[in-house]
TrEMBL record:
Gene3D superfamilies: P-loop containing nucleotide triphosphate hydrolases. GO terms for molecular function: ATP binding; ATP hydrolysis activity. This is ABC transporter ATP-binding protein. The keyword Repeat does not apply. Residues 4-240 form the ABC transporter domain. CDD domains: ABC_Iron-Siderophores_B12_Hemin.
Length: 263
């Protein structure tokens, strides 16, 4: 049984429907990546799965219970989300930002107890950001900041982490660094990772399960070998792709592609 699944979900904004009649399952303790062209519903789906927006009909179930009926603090102890853009108050230190992950566990005046402090330090160590604990977040590089945001999610101590395009605006080395960190969290701690990625080769390399969306519908879902194929990429992105096997990972890799016109 999958802890998180949807049943015939409809999502949209007002009368504008983005996703309709969508049923899917998120594999437990695996890395799931959602791919698709701009506007296909990837981020909308992520927001609905984490209750940032409400679904109009159907059901989103976590541990056999509708997420709409779950207590907010209890839900925040089960899942964390890193949105596409993050705003940081000027002058906030790394340690202060990571401490926000402890909000679901705080009572009264929100003072941090020893358990909170230990969770913060573990998250900083795990993400390699402990040396920046007392530095201002806005003084860090893009890759360092992203690791700090992930540290905040780790401090929340959830079993499921959602990320919306976590490699955006990062150079190739920092993209790889972030994705390898997420893979490590999955392999070593059994965290369920769900993320939206634009880079197909990154999705193929790091995901155990891929969901390909087009116009709010699932075109194909499954392993990278099942989804990253000439036929699927043609349908989802309207490209004529050459897909081979990566000699280092044995995963599919898109070598080159042309835009298909007139179809």
């Amino acid at each position: 049984m999958h802890r998180l699944h949807t049943d015939r979900v409809r999502l949209g904004y007002g009368e504008r429907i983005i996703i309709d009649d969508l049923s899917l399952e998120i594999p437990d303790k695996k890395i799931t990546t959602i791919i698709g062209s701009n506007g296909c519903g990837k981020s909308t789906l992520l927001k609905a799965l984490t209750r940032i927006i409400s679904h109009q009909s159907g059901a989103i179930m976590l541990d056999g219970k509708s997420i709409l009926k779950e207590n907010t603090r209890l839900l925040a102890r089960k899942m964390a989300i890193l949105p596409q853009t993050n705003e940081i108050p000027v002058g906030l230190t790394v340690g202060e930002l990571v401490s926000y992950g402890r909000f679901p566990y705080q009572k009264g005046f929100g003072r941090l107890n020893q358990s909170d402090l230990d969770a913060i330090d573990r998250a900083l160590e795990k993400t390699g950001t402990a040396e920046f604990k007392y530095e201002s977040v806005d003084s860090l590089s893009g890759g360092q900041r992203q690791r700090v945001w992930i540290a905040m999610a780790l401090a929340q101590e959830t079993e499921i982490i959602f990320l919306d395009e976590p490699t955006t605006y990062l150079d190739m080395a920092h993209q790889l660094e972030v994705l390898e960190l997420l893979q490590q969290l999955n392999k070593e701690e059994g965290r369920t990772i769900v993320m939206v990625l634009h880079d197909l080769n990154q999705a193929a390399r790091f995901a155990d399960y891929i969901i390909a969306l087009k116009n709010g519908k699932i075109v194909r879902s499954g392993s990278s070998e099942e989804v990253i194929s000439h036929e699927v990429l043609k349908e989802v992105f309207q490209i004529d792709a050459v897909v081979e096997k990566d000699p280092r990972t044995n995963k599919p890799i898109c070598i080159t592609y042309n835009l298909i016109k007139g179809e």
